[in-house]
């Protein structure tokens, strides 16, 4: 993926955090981008350059979100998709012994069912392009007590890509990147107080650059964490 | 001593049925959740004093909610076997969105919802055990069943996550990682030419699982093949998935199979 000019790139969850950084970066390089989010288009349109197509696709309804993305591919005549970064995610913090059932279902829908349904919907375009599917997982995929169902969903993503990368070998790349904690709003959205540990989180610019580097390598599975943070402290610390 | 009570989801066939029979032999009253109405009736007729049956389509969150409320009222239970599962095998991109939706709703969502709802509402007895039936695919990967593998990885890690918190209420969480079991389910999803005698006998597996609940274990790799695969998967996760690809997926390309039609006819005859 060295030359990003005129590539067709899908990035889910592009209104904030890592997704937004990736949209910015690939847009600068001249790619055609479709990005998604929960917000209405009016609320977020001014965030993006005109070349970026934004669609509202709420992943609490996985199949509807996937169908919306398919429909947009069709309306823009995207028969090929070179790169799909399925980044959208959301989690909640709670004691696993008193988990709210509706939040559990929502966590699974957003973080597990949706990436699978979207992958399925765009697989013809990905395979036709010999493209790359990249899921943004989490270091929590091996287990995290306070994020029981979020972590379970991320484990599901991991197993999904583990199998799919083998299935698609030689035809298309399927990759999962597990970032460590980043300085995004995700933890605040999850009602998780991070004041005391926030200094441990990787600044977003550095994390985004590390993720992009891993996307261009296409190796799976890969963790982006402390190493990129150390490297970033030499090359780009001040940008934050 | 009070009568011990168990729940088995997907208790009409395969491993679920073997668990039901073994539990009844041990004197349990078993509540069975299944979508096979006639088999539920057969079981109830055979063991009228030991079976409570719930006819349910686990792909329906609404139906599950109703049954969960009843189970909470009729609890607490000693053992809860979250066993129900379906698969979808073939090239990832050749299987329908609906089939994947239903697979995830049964294998992952119904499992997690039942667990969280029963434990959260004190429907599991102190010193009781919740049993998750994951899959050996959690350690070896499963090319040709990517979404099935995802569904089983999710429940394995969920079980790991809740283990400590549940221990505070003296509830154990046990996760099983079985390889192929000699059931109709395995037969349908197996690659062409696979030898069924190499699959584990569900009756033997059921006994091992129930014995493991007595011993308060956290995970169970039920036979030597599973134990060895576990070690191999730990050492070389990528190589072992590639090996799975060679031995399973290449033989399976032509045998796309998923359970969509089964579930749909079931819905229809319910009305």
Topology:
The complex is a heterodimer of chains A (240) and B (271).
Chain A: E1 8-11, H1 17-28, E2 32-37, H2 41-44, E3 52-56, H3 62-75, E4 83-86, H4 101-129, E5 132-136, H5 148-167, E6 173-179, H6 186-189, H7 204-217, E7 222-224, H8 226-235
Parallel strand pairs in A: 1-2, 1-4, 2-3, 4-5, 5-6, 6-7
Chain B: E1 5-9, H1 14-25, E2 29-34, H2 37-46, E3 51-55, H3 61-74, E4 77-82, E5 88-89, H4 97-120, E6 124-133, H5 137-140, H6 146-167, E7 172-176, H7 184-189, H8 202-214, E8 219-220, H9 224-235, H10 237-252, E9 257-258, H11 260-270
Parallel strand pairs in B: 1-2, 1-4, 2-3, 4-6, 6-7, 7-8
Antiparallel strand pairs in B: 5-9
Helix pairs in contact in B: 1-8, 3-4, 4-6, 9-10
Count helical runs of chain A.
8
Radius of gyration of chain A: 17 Å
Residue fraction in strands of chain A: 5-15%
**Multimer state:** heterodimer
State the main characteristics.
heterodimer, A: 240 residues, alpha/beta, Rossmann fold, seven-stranded parallel sheet, 8 helices, 14% strand, disordered C terminus, B: 271 residues, two-stranded antiparallel ribbon, 11 helices, 9 strands, 16% strand
Outline the structure in words.
The complex is a heterodimer of chains A (240) and B (271). In chain A, 45% of the residues lie in helices and 14% in strands. By secondary structure, chain A is of the alpha/beta class. Chain A has 8 helices and 7 strands, in the order βαβαβαβαβαβααβα. The radius of gyration of chain A is 17 Å and the shape is globular. In chain A, helix 1 (17-28) packs across helix 7. Mean pLDDT of chain A is 88; it is low at 236-240. Chain B has a 7-stranded parallel β-sheet, with helices on both faces. Residues 260-271 of chain B have low confidence and may be disordered. Chain B has helices at residues 14-25, 37-46, 61-74, 97-120, 137-140, 146-167, 184-189, 202-214, 224-235, 237-252, 260-270, and strands at 5-9, 29-34, 51-55, 77-82, 88-89, 124-133, 172-176, 219-220, 257-258. In chain B, helix 1 packs across helix 8 and helix 3 runs parallel beside helix 4. Chains A and B meet through helix 3, helix 4 and helix 5 of A and helix 4, helix 6 and helix 10 of B.
């Amino acid at each position: 993926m060295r030359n990003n000019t005129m590539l067709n790139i899908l990035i889910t969850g592009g209104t904030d955090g890592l997704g937004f950084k990736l949209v910015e970066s690939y847009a600068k390089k001249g790619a055609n981008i479709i990005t998604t989010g929960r917000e209405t288009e009016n609320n977020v349109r001014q965030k993006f350059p005109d070349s970026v197509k934004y669609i509202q696709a709420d992943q609490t309804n996985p199949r509807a979100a996937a169908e919306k993305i398919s429909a947009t591919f069709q309306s823009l005549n995207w028969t090929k998709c070179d790169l799909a970064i399925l980044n959208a995610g959301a989690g909640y913090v709670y004691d696993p012994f008193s988990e709210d059932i509706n939040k559990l279902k929502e966590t699974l829908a957003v973080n597990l069912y949706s990436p699978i349904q979207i992958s399925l919907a765009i697989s013809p375009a990905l395979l036709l392009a010999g493209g790359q599917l990249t899921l943004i997982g989490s270091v929590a995929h091996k287990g995290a007590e306070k994020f029981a169902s979020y972590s379970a969903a991320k484990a599901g993503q991991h197993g999904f890509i583990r199998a799919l990368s083998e299935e698609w070998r030689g035809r298309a790349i399927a990759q999962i990147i597990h970032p460590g904690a980043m300085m995004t709003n995700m933890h605040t959205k999850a009602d998780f107080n991070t004041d005391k540990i926030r200094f441990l989180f990787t600044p977003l610019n550095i994390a985004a650059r590390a993720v992009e580097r891993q996307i261009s390598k296409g190796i799976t599975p890969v963790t982006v964490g402390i190493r990129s943070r150390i490297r970033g402290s030499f090359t780009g610390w001040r940008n934050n | 001593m009070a009568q011990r009570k168990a729940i088995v989801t997907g208790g009409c066939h395969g491993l679920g049925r073997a668990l039901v029979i073994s539990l009844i032999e041990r004197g349990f009253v078993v509540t069975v959740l299944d979508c096979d109405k006639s088999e539920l009736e057969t079981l109830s007729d055979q063991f009228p004093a030991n079976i409570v049956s719930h006819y349910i389509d686990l792909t329906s969150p609404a139906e599950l909610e109703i049954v969960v409320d009843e189970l909470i009222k009729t609890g607490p239970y000693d053992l809860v076997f979250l066993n129900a599962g379906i698969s979808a095998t073939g090239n990832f991109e050749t299987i329908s969105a609906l089939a994947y939706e239903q697979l995830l709703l049964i294998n992952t969502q119904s499992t997690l919802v039942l667990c969280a709802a029963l434990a959260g509402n004190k429907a599991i007895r102190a010193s009781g055990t919740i049993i998750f039936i994951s899959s050996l695919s959690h350690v070896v990967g499963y090319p040709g069943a990517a979404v099935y593998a995802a569904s089983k990885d999710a429940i394995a890690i969920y079980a790991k996550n809740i283990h400590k918190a549940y221990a505070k209420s003296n509830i154990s969480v046990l996760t099983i990682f079985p390889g192929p079991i000699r059931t109709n389910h395995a037969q349908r999803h197996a690659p062409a030419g696979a030898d069924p005698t190499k699959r584990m006998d569900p009756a033997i597996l059921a006994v091992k699982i129930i014995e493991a609940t007595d011993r308060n274990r956290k995970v169970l790799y039920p036979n030597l093949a599973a134990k060895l695969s576990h070690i191999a998967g730990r050492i070389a996760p990528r190589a072992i998935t590639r090996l799975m690809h060679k031995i399973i997926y290449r033989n399976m390309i032509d045998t796309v199979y998923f359970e969509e039609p089964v579930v749909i006819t079931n819905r229809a005859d319910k009305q």
